[in-house]
């Protein structure tokens, strides 16, 4: 028998309400539901012009972000890049980052390391001021 796990990303619990970020942010983390050992994946949807209120970086893992729909600005340390549908960006482990959605919002698929992801993150509130 083949070993696999099948889940629907949109049916995985949205974690944003637990942190007071809903309805502007939807964040569904699939590492545990998919029972992965070496990678993590999440779906994130940001409401139009919503900026994530913190920056984050990792000590060990790099991440890849895929813009599924909409547009966004991504702040990477002190640089801001514009992203559109189907853009893919790799971010090194020690680069502080986060997103601000464009006028129509944005849907993002984030891919990174497995277990190291949550405990490996360093978050800084108010990192991207106006």
Please give a quick description of this structure.
This protein has 130 residues and is mainly beta.
Give the key terms:
single chain; 130 residues; mainly beta; Jelly Rolls; six-stranded antiparallel sheet; two-stranded antiparallel ribbon; 2 helices; 8 strands; 6% helix
Sequence-ordered SSE layout with sheet pairings:
Blueprint: E1 25-29, H1 31-34, E2 40-46, E3 54-58, E4 63-76, E5 79-84, E6 88-91, E7 97-112, H2 116-119, E8 121-125
Antiparallel strand pairs: 1-2, 2-7, 3-8, 4-5, 4-6, 4-7
How does this model look, in words?
- The chain has 130 residues and is mostly beta strands.
- The protein has a single domain (26-125), classed as Sandwich (Jelly Rolls).
- 6% of the residues lie in helices and 48% in strands.
- It is built from two helices and eight strands; from the N terminus they run βαββββββαβ.
- The strands form two sheets. Strands 1, 2, 4, 5, 6 and 7 form a six-stranded antiparallel sheet that branches. A two-stranded antiparallel sheet has the order 3-8.
- A hairpin with a 2-residue loop joins strand 4 (63-76) and strand 5.
- It is globular, with a radius of gyration of 14 Å.
